[in-house]
Structure to design on (216 residues):
């Protein structure tokens, strides 16, 4: 009988460090939350300009990046709870009645209609050189072990930190190109920090606690 695998074995994320997602294969990611753009409300000339600008932006890239659109059901419960608190502290009886009717309307409306909220993300990857990742945990460590030249733990950690910072610089340069290109298209973006990334992945892997299954 095959041994059951832990959930972590199916997750490609190795660690989240200093606002960077590190995958098990060594790939480093920066994730940006992006603003939306109501394309339909633009004039024909503005739409054409946006399309051309976006086309030029994509053609200028010499690396890949991913755009993720996440759609999930809006959790209206916090909003209803805040309205209930206001209703309880409302001295005017007429306003209190109106608030109660409004709460009942919102509750009944959202029960019959799924109100969705969309979030937009840009994912910028950087794959460190193959010799770099293999030397950290593969061939080089074995060679040192054979000849008795095992690296000092402190020295090894310092080298890993230096390598991480070098790779981070490369990733940030790519990210700067992407954010500037999106800005020229009218899309603003902001990098997610460590806590925000942890919350994002937690909600992805625990949809029952965050308003339903996300759609990508």
């Amino acid at each position: 009988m095959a041994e059951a695998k832990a959930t972590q074995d199916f997750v490609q994320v190795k660690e989240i460090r200093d606002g960077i997602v590190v995958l098990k294969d060594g790939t480093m990611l920066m994730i940006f939350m992006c603003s939306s753009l109501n394309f339909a409300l633009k004039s024909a000339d503005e739409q054409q300009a946006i399309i051309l600008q976006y086309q030029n932006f994509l053609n200028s890239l010499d690396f890949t990046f991913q755009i993720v659109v996440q759609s999930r059901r809006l959790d209206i419960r916090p909003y209803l709870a805040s309205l209930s608190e206001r209703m309880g502290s409302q001295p005017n009886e007429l306003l209190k009645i109106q608030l109660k009717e409004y709460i009942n309307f919102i509750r009944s409306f959202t029960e019959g209609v799924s109100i969705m909220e969309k979030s937009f993300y840009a994912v910028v990857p950087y794959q460190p050189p193959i010799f770099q990742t293999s030397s950290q945990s593969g061939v080089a460590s074995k060679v040192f072990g054979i000849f008795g030249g095992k690296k000092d733990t402190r020295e090894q950690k310092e080298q890993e930190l230096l390598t991480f910072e070098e790779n981070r610089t490369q990733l940030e340069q790519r990210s700067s190109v992407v954010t500037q290109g999106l800005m020229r298209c009218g899309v603003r973006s902001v990098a997610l920090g460590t806590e925000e990334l942890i919350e994002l992945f937690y909600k992805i892997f625990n949809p029952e606690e965050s308003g339903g299954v996300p759609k990508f």
Observations:
- Residues 153-184 form the longest helix (32 residues).
- Residues 3 and 90 are 60 Å apart (CA to CA).
- Residues 9-72+121-209 form one domain.
- The longest strand covers residues 116-126.
